[in-house]
Design goal:
Chain A is 62% helix and 13% strand. Chain A contains 10 helices and 13 strands. Chain A is rod-shaped, with a radius of gyration of 38 Å. The model of chain A has no long low-confidence stretch (mean pLDDT 90). In chain B, the strands form 3 sheets. In chain B, strands 1-2 form a two-stranded antiparallel ribbon. A two-stranded antiparallel sheet of chain B has the order 3-4. In chain B, strand 1 and strand 2 form a beta hairpin. The chains are: A alpha+beta (445), B mainly alpha (300).
Chain lengths: 445, 300
Amino acid sequence: MASDLLQIGASGARAARAALDVTAQNISNASTEGYVRRSIRLAEVAMSGGYGRLGDISLSGVRIDGVTRNADLFRQSEVRRTGSDSARASAELQGLENTEAAIEQANIFPSITAFETALQRLSADPVDPSLRAAVLEDARTMARTFNIGAQALASVGDGLHFEAADGVEQVNLLAQELGRVNLRLARAVDATSDQTQLLDQRDMLLQRLAGQVDVSTTIAADNTVQVRIGGSGGPVLVSGGTVGSFASATAANGTLSFTVDGSPVTLNAGSLAGKAQALVTLDDTRTRLDAVADALIATVNAVQTAGAALDGSAGQPLFSGSGAAGITLALTSGSQIATAPAGSGVGSRDPTNLDALKAALTGNDISGQMDGLLFSVSSGVASRRTTAKAIDSIAASARIALEQQSGVDLDQEAVDLVRFQQAFQASGKVMQVASTLFDTLLAIR
Amino acid sequence: MTSVSTSAFYERANRDIGALRSRAEDLQAAVGRGQRLARASDDPVAAARLRRLTRTDQFVAIDTTNAARAMSDLQLTDAALGSFAGYVTRIKELATQAANGTLTASQRAGIGAEVQQLQGELVRLANSRDSAGHALFGGETAGAAYTLDAAGNAIYAGTTSAGDLPLGDGQSVTRGLTGPEFLNFAGTDLFAVTKALADALTGASADPAQAARDALSPLDTGLEAITTAQTVVGTRMNWIDLNLERATRLSEMRSDEEAEVAGTDIAATVTELQEVMTVLEASQASFARLASLSLFDMIR
């Protein structure tokens, strides 16, 4: 069988057209998120000679073998893993920074100092009504700063819970989307532009999912993906078209736990894990703040009830309630502050009980406890900031490495454009030659 | 073949320029604030030290006002002691006059009346008030330091001690003197001695000249006790001055430490800012040049 020059030229022109299409697609998607550069794979069409026709030339041009996606599975999984880590670190850092701001901007430590200095000032003249009023007001301010701190911590917790609920919803949406993509992938024909587009979608969904939870993926021969969360031993979230249901539960102390179809899962990465970790720290901070407030209430009230007020009556508790959120000033007048020892007369200037109060505040180290709390929160933030920065730069370099390899290089596309244009023109020339040859044959008389 | 993907190029440029910009902004904020720390987590140790230093500063401020208060009370005490000494000297003069055997009974009675007046002055002086309106020589009592009984004897009604006032760093000063501390001596007190003298001169004694002579030695002892008390008060004022000076020196050291711990080193920060700005400008310029370099412009 002889070759058909016109047919060969036409197939070349077709291949060049397809290659130009792919190049144009690459150019227009140069900055599309998750787009992996495609290239066209061509294959020669030729027949081996049959019996008795071994010397024959039987060439039939070129055919489009498929569309290649220049994706590197290893780099993609690295991007998912490091991105997941980085999302966790930054979510935890953000939660902790909010906790730090809540407890620091409540100005609890300065207000404790102000209360203690007011007591010191009162010792200059324990019966001075204005100094007593100042002590009472400073005590009120101190109680309120504790309330403000507790409220601010509670609202940080609310914010984190809200974001976590949104994250859980996102995970379920992404999982369902992945299930649909899996079903379509199972039906897609190999190496078609349809399949490459589905693969792009699959990888992008996986990357988004990895931002929320840590995923472990297994890719089957038909390119469908099985997703486990919480590490490779974790429960299956997506397998083929079957999608599990991801849920979170809030404990009484505000910490989060997660389940897939009812079975518990521990998240190690992803922003949901970061939020859960931030909530644990938040709960710890809240407990410690309550402990400081309780110690303050116990210390002040014990000394206060052991003394006598300005009118000689037995001292009444200065604070009521418990915990940072509950602490309230119980006294109404500065004259009720018990500066004198029990049994003193009216208007006693004996500062024994006032000295005992100052000594008890110093001895129980209320300001030191608060200082310790502030220090541990802020040093926690500082160390996590360092970690988050390191993890973020690792994630960024993994992302750049992937883009380097799978992203579109406009310069290369420009070159391809010229190359395939020339290929198209050359194929056109082939058809012209074929036509001329045919004309030559027809012209024989 | 390593290809330089367009999106990777933009991403890298974005990261690098973004990092430089945020560094420059941090430095600018540090200069503007005058403080290196925007929040405690920027340097937890420095923040904790700063909290401690600020706390100490606040306590020292209170201690300083307390010391000033003690100082003014001690000055009042000093002035009152001066008056005491004047009165006692005058009573001594009168006693010396009365001891003269040539005086008539009515002349002695006249001297006795003056001594009686002076004794009343002494009691009033002992009941003077301090800057806060409390009894100056009554220790920590709520009322007056001395009360007069039916017979006209001055009875001490105050507490045994004047109480201490903290001056900071564990130091304290006794804020005043109680009446008995300088008015009581050798088993008696100044009021009893002067009252006995006045009574003797106005007719209670058979030998008023001898009584006047007898009064001279306890009066001498009383004057001595008062001048000794003046020395004590002077020493306490010195002690307060010493503590205030020390507080000032320590607060200077603390401000130095605060500046060192959390302050911005303007020269270093501005230099670093300049450096960052230079690098930022250079990378922006090179980015603009590279980004405008497209093969599409070249192919016609």
